[in-house]
Design goal:
There is one protein chain. By secondary structure, this protein is mostly beta strands. Helix content is about 0%, strand content about 40%. The protein has no helices and 21 strands. Strands 7, 8, 9, 10, 11 and 12 form a six-stranded mixed sheet that branches. Strands 17, 18, 19, 20 and 21 form a five-stranded antiparallel sheet that branches. A four-stranded antiparallel sheet has the order 3-4-5-6, with no helix packed on it. A hairpin with a 5-residue loop joins strand 14 and strand 15.
Length: about 290
């Protein structure tokens, strides 16, 4: 039987708490760690988190964005604003006119260990900007990869990452449920792509070749430049969708799951799902 929960009446300000629930047979522990409108570490206030919902890590850390669009990280009882500057990122060199977009351009993706943060930071300024994936404790980050860099072990380049400074959810860098980031890198002629999974400090790469499209006849082409990586799991498999071009016909959409060169077609436009007589439409988003 699930334990009963009761709450005292709250004021109009939003209150956020961390719930630690090991199982339904154990008591539920809830800790308040932020109240909207109250001062946040480093300046600003806690916002309503409408699109910046607090996230947690297996290590018990929380991270979210405050009203000044700055990242707040740490254990619930000792939160601090994450200050990130180019000088604190080893291996990251900025060209003339480039800078880190520290206001709204920093997103903590996960916390692999207490005090360690895997972070995406936007680089603005010149046409060679983009984003950088960095990791480490505050003040001692190391660059893992920057857009425009080749994925380690391949000749494929990490393509641009969609990064909206306004809407926190619009960061096109998916992670597994364990917080491991996945990127797409493509060769210059868009004939081959690699899905790179960064896990345990190393890259695990899966090659995706455009012709033939896995699960289709030999004359069907998988559109490399249209690949969207959507999700991943704890065993290193990922889910992506893209467009398939039957020659001389319009494209259809297909979704795959797999890794290490083993891709399985999950669903494609026109399929009928089990228990549902309707066909899958031409546009869908797996996740």
């Amino acid at each position: 039987m699930r334990p009963a929960l009761s709450f005292a009446p709250l004021a109009t300000a939003a209150v956020f708490a961390l719930s630690l629930i090991p199982s339904w047979s154990a008591p539920v522990s809830i800790r308040q760690f932020a109240v909207a409108g109250t001062p946040a570490p480093g300046g600003g206030t806690y916002s309503l988190f409408a699109s910046d919902a607090p996230r947690t890590s297996p290590a018990g850390e929380v991270f979210f964005r405050d009203s000044d669009a700055k990242e707040v990280v740490g254990p619930p009882d000792s939160l601090a604003q994450l200050n990130l500057t180019a000088g604190t990122i080893s291996g990251l060199t900025l060209a003339s006119g480039e800078s880190l977009q520290t206001n709204g351009g920093i997103v903590v993706l996960s916390s692999p260990a207490p005090g360690q943060y895997l972070t995406l930071v936007k680089i603005s300024g010149s046409t060679g900007g983009g984003s950088a994936l960095v990791s480490g404790p505050p003040g001692a980050f190391t660059k893992i990869l920057r857009t425009g860099d080749p994925l380690p072990g391949t000749s494929a380049v990490w393509t641009a990452t969609r990064f909206s400074p306004t809407f926190y959810a619009q960061v096109d860098l998916p992670t597994t449920r364990g917080g491991d980031p996945m990127i797409k890198a493509a060769t210059a002629d868009d004939s081959v792509a690699y899905i790179g999974l960064y896990r345990n400090g190393a890259w695990e790469n899966t090659q995706v070749v455009g012709i033939p499209a896995p699960g289709f006849p030999a004359d069907k082409t998988l559109q490399i430049e249209a690949i969207n990586v959507r999700a991943g799991n704890s065993v290193g498999q990922f889910v992506f969708d893209t467009t398939i071009f039957p020659r001389g016909d319009i494209g259809i959409q297909a979704a795959y799951i797999g890794n290490n060169g083993s891709l399985q077609l999950m669903v494609k436009t026109g399929d009928v799902l089990p228990g549902d007589p309707r066909q899958v439409s031409g546009t869908f988003r797996p996740g």
